[in-house]
Amino acid sequence: MPLVEINDLRVEFATHDAAVRAVNGVSFTLEEGETLGIVGESGSGKSQTVLAMLGLLASNGRASGRALYRGENLLGLSAKALNRLRGNRLSMIFQDPMSSLNPYLTIERQMTEVLELHKNMTRREAKKRAIAMLEAVRIPEAAHRIGQYPHELSGGMRQRVMIAMALLCEPEVLFADEPTTALDVTVQAQVLQLLRDLQRDFGTSIVLITHDLGVVAGLCEKVMVMYGGRVMEQCDAATLFAKPSHPYTIGLLRALPRLDQQGGELTGIPGNPPNMAHPPAGCPFHERCADAAAECAERAPALTAVDGAHWLRACHRPVDALKTRYRETSHV
């Protein structure tokens, strides 16, 4: 049995104008010790997929389908039952550490309350454990830093604090939402290496939400490409970079700088993402796809297996038939 199994997950938000369908039929599995990258543009449904699983949707949001953790449907749990899992067995690193950390509480209090709640530690025991975790994420002078407030730390240090907080209870699943956003490239590399080391040391499964395929290439075994609330392509990372076959995946890769091609032109994807309050009837990407046909605008393609069960794709006109045109896109 997979550690996490998502089946036909759907998320809608009620608004004054219309229901916004943020996530539309997403399914995936996550095994123990595995890393899954969820990629796509802003608004593609990446974050809402994870927030729905953890019961953290906005008050006007509603999730349906199944989100199983060790066989138990998270969508059917009460807030009290979810609180026993969140921060304990399931943890999340939020996108903006400055807004996620409480500016009125010291780092110590924000970390120790997690251990007091989930592990029944005393304040002294919790502080000792918190300092050890800050040292594990390579924060210098951790015993001093733990008494500071978030505004006294740099962006990179705040992100490390968020990672330390998420790992305090040694969770089985870590959800990381754009953990390297707004960090300079040196700190980004350090954070990614930190995630690799911590996964090796703790055996944690990771779901990495990002728009950066370069980050995915360096950290993930499996990749799920989302667009317009749907899964466009899902496979192992090596396959995605070696022979991408969905036009949207191709577009994302063409916008990625390559070190093996000097002076290569970066090509953006023309157009804008669909309005999910009024989603298109067919494939959500068809208005921006250079190879779309009439059927692409009429009906959404089903997510079907390609070359075996571990490679899934939703496209009426995959680029397999256009390999000459797209050959230069290979990133492996």
Key terms:
332 residues; alpha/beta; eight-stranded mixed beta sheet; four-stranded antiparallel beta sheet; 13 helices; 12 strands; disordered C terminus
Describe the structure.
With 332 residues, this protein is an alpha/beta fold. It has a domain of 70 residues. It is built from 13 helices and 12 strands. It has an 8-stranded mixed β-sheet, with helices on both faces. It has a 4-stranded antiparallel β-sheet with strand order 2-1-4-5. Helix 4 crosses helix 5, helix 5 packs across helix 7 and helix 7 packs parallel to helix 8. The longest helix is centred in the middle third of the chain and has 18 residues. The relative contact order is 0.14.
Summarize the topology.
Layout: E1 4-14, E2 19-30, E3 35-39, H1 46-53, E4 61-69, E5 72-73, H2 79-85, E6 90-93, H3 97-100, H4 107-118, H5 123-136, H6 142-145, H7 155-167, E7 173-177, H8 185-202, E8 205-210, H9 213-219, E9 222-227, E10 230-236, H10 237-242, H11 247-254, H12 294-298, E11 304-305, E12 312-313, H13 323-326
Short description:
The protein is α/β, with parallel strands linked by helices. The chain is built from 13 helices and twelve strands. The protein has helices at 46-53, 79-85, 97-100, 107-118, 123-136, 142-145, 155-167, 185-202, 213-219, 237-242, 247-254, 294-298, 323-326; strands at 4-14, 19-30, 35-39, 61-69, 72-73, 90-93, 173-177, 205-210, 222-227, 230-236, 304-305, 312-313.
